[in-house]
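Researcher: Here's a chain I'd like modeled. Treat it as a single chain, no partners, no ligands.
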Amino acid sequence: MSNPEVVDARGTRCPVPVVRVARAARSLAPGEVVVLLADDEAARSDVPAWARMRGHGLTVEDDGTWTRYTVRVAGTTSDGSGEARST
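Model: Modeled as a single isolated chain. Structure tokens:
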């Protein structure tokens, strides 16, 4: 497994963090991971909402100063065939 792409958006404000992670996710294959680092308060609601709308998996780790959003790009079927699912 390769290292995930890391998007460091700390120090930027809405809508920059979600725009940057969305742009990075578009270039990834289904099942790949992108990590967003952000300290913008609005990202706490924007990133999970964006991930839900796109069907991406998301884990969130907050260290009190900034937050790490780990996004697993959607699009594979449950049988692992790699076929993109339609939305």
